[in-house]
Amino acid sequence: MSTIKIHETQPDKERLYNNNTFVEEDLRSIQNIEGGGPIKLNDFNTLPRPLKVFGYFFFSALVLFGAITVLISFLC
Fold first, then answer.
1. Distances (CA, A) of 13 to 3, 16, 66, 72
2. What are the tens digits of pLDDT across the range 18-71?
3. Where are the domains of the chain?
4. Which of 27, 31, 37, 44 is most buried, by CB atoms within 10 Å?
């Protein structure tokens, strides 16, 4: 045997969690129960095009309004 098991039915952690993301050992069981597995990074490139366009428009408008607010506050 390559690993020492406490119980015969206890699975090997190395086989279950072979991703490179950080998972705190104390929260691993809770994350598996609630999330259906280990934490995965979101891939925003797979979002639909209308959602991407809305996001770009929304954040561009937010930055523009912020810049206008700062500009007006310095001019007045």
1. 10, 5, 48, 58
2. 555 666 777 777 766 666 666 677 788 888 999 999 999 999 999 999 999 999
3. 1-41, 44-75
4. 31
